[in-house]
Amino acid sequence: MLDNLKNKNIILGSGSPRRADLLREMGLEFDIEIKQTDESFSEKLTPKEVAEYLAHKKGEAFKKDLKEGDIVITADTIVSLNGQILNKPKDKSEAQTMLRILSNKLHEVITGVSILSNNKQTIFHTVTSVTFSKFSEKEIDYYIDKFKPFDKAGAYGIQEWIGLVGVKKIEGSYYNVVGLPTHALYHQLSTF
């Protein structure tokens, strides 16, 4: 569908199976390459700046290896509650704490995206507001034990059980919360 990308070699710079599934569903053919990146950032950055900064940093890791016709897509999704960033939980205890904090509250999910070729880079972010209903301790423990959300910002995946039973309201792109703002990405790619 994106005719301008027909002769391009698209690379997804992410190990996220969810991002790969979304790109496939968008009709894109791509390779997956993962480069380890230091994901530290300055405490002075706002959550939106952090998402863009990390997406940019992940893209920069590919810069020296890009060939003519290569396009690398990298992304970083963060969860923010009142300006506080909730990263991926290190263990069950941290996941429990995060889900308790998010319970019965509105939070933001921000995905920063970088599209990079050997002569151009576009960086943007998308924000989605998610409101959870109140979780019991039993529900929190059930979700963590069954789904092990340790690779997910904010300790949850909206497409999993907790999203099915716990999302009271969502404003913005659902797919952004899954990990890739497909609508915005499609439009950015169409003019890249």
Short recap of the structure:
This protein has 192 residues and is of the alpha/beta class. 34% of the residues lie in helices and 26% in strands.
| Uncertain ranges | none
Tell me the Rg in angstroms. Answer: 17 Å
Largest sheet properties: 7 strands, mixed
- CATH fold description: Maf protein
Question: What percentage of the residues does DSSP assign to strands (E)?
Answer: 25-35%
**Principal-axes shape call:** elongated
**DSSP helix fraction:** 25-40%
The average pLDDT value, as a whole number, equals: 95
So how many helices?
7
Report, as a whole number of angstroms, the end-to-end distance: 14 Å
CATH class annotation: Alpha Beta
Which class of secondary structure composition applies to the elements? alpha/beta
What string gives the helices and strands in order?
EHEHEEHEEHHEHH
Number of strand elements: 7
Summed up, the domain count is: 1
CATH architecture assignment? Alpha-Beta Complex
Walkthrough of the structure:
By secondary structure, this protein is an alpha/beta fold. The chain has a single domain (3-190), classed as Maf protein (Alpha-Beta Complex). It has helices at 17-25, 47-60, 92-102, 137-147, 161-166, 174-178, 182-190; strands at residues 9-12, 31-32, 70-81, 84-86, 106-116, 121-132, 167-171. Strands 1, 2, 3, 4, 5, 6 and 7 form a 7-stranded mixed sheet that branches.
Name a few traits of the molecule:
7 strands, seven-stranded mixed β-sheet, 192 residues, Maf protein, alpha/beta, 7 helices, 34% helix
